[in-house]
Amino acid sequence: MGICFSKKSTRSTRIYSKRITNQSATSINRSSVNRWSRVRSSSVKKESVDDVVIHEHAIAAALLFQQQNSDVLPFDRSVSLRQLPGGANSQCQQIIRRSCSTRRRSVVDPMLPPPLLIDQEVNHEELETSHIVLVHGGGFGAWCWYKTIALLQECKFKVTAIDSSGSGIDLVDANSIESLSQYAKPLTDFLKKLADGEKVILVGHDFGGACISYAMELYPTKVAKAIFIAASMLKTGQSALDMFSLKENTNGLMRQAQKFLYANGNNQPPTAIDLDKLLLKDLLFNQSPAKDVALACVSMRPIPFSPVLEKPSLSDSNYGSIRRFYIETPEDNAIPITLQQIMINQSPPEKVFRLKGADHCPFFSKPQALHKVLVEIAKLIKTE
Fold first, then answer.
1. Domains of the chain and CATH, by start
2. Residue 244's pLDDT is what?
3. DSSP classification of residue 28
4. Three-class SS of 202-260
């Protein structure tokens, strides 16, 4: 825990007397008191979440001291669990693993207290499908969904995360991809192999919206719902480049971050787009935890350019027959909320959700809130 204890000191236990009954066994030395006082005094103006974490650390420290001086059963802080009401037999066990870290939790990466966590009771027999397919955006890979995958699997959903061609661990060179069909081939191959009558929920982020739109047109009978997360939700005959041209780029951040690659020579059209790693945080992750920004910086790959130019043909009988939902990200610097709303107004989905405080990548910045919306959409029953 990073705090030193001594039997000779008796100060500071009065503060936690309501929770620690053995006053004589829970004494702390003077240096620890001074250190603890500094922590408490410096956190007066911080958000209440800091006080909760500090208080939990104090309780855990006292329990550890007690077990060293009594016959208390071992208390393993690193594997302790908090289980919400619902019982061990609940279809979605709401368990929060406590962290063994002593550092203060970042405000942008909080662990929500139990009352704020969603009621994730899911009766999968009532769902049209429990299989969710996650499609990443340009430059990303299946790796970016790691938080979302874990949360959905805890609720017994079947989850598949796709690596598009030239993305993630796919071995294709992004510069060699010449069409949207080639870029989306891992997704369309997956849908093609689904058994007759089997359906999935497609979830697309960023340019993944164009990919799932293309797949919806090809395999409408295999898609129950489509969810666009800060994604390119195109009209027929509209390219992703056309969509981005609608944006009023007041700060020029996207233009500054883009680096065009010319694998076929500088006198030929660009083959891919790379993003300046120094600008990634401001562009994509302005509300995301530093650890996820670091993960993205070492994992992102160039974005194939040709698919961005392609204008897919989307028919009402195929693409238009599938229920669509849009999730807005209001703190988005890559696809600003104004542009998201333009796409929504041009091709209205069944329902629009907004993740308050989310940047372009809510699977990093707001994973719990995103999970809540995904489960809610999965549970929505179509009303005639």
1. 13-75 (no CATH), 117-379 (3.40.50.1820)
2. 80
3. B
4. EEEECCHHHHHHHHHHHCHHHEEEEEEECCCCCCCCCCHHHHHHCCCCCCCHHHHHEEE
pLDDT at 245: 78
CB crowding 73-92: b at 16 or more within 10 Å, else e: eeeebeeeeeebeeeeebeb
Residue 247 and residue 270 in contact, taking contact as beta carbons nearer than 8 Å: no
Residues that are catalytic: 206, 332, 360
| Statement: residue 130 has pLDDT above 80 | yes
List beta partners, residue 354.
328
State both tokens at 263: 């694998």
- Residue 357 tokens read as 């405080």
Distance CA 220, CA 252 (A): 38
Residue 252 has pLDDT above 90, yes or no: no
Give yes or no for a contact between 28 and 12, defined as CB atoms under 8 angstroms apart: yes
53/6 Cα distance (integer angstroms): 23
DSSP 92-117: S--EEEPP---SPPPTTS----GGGS
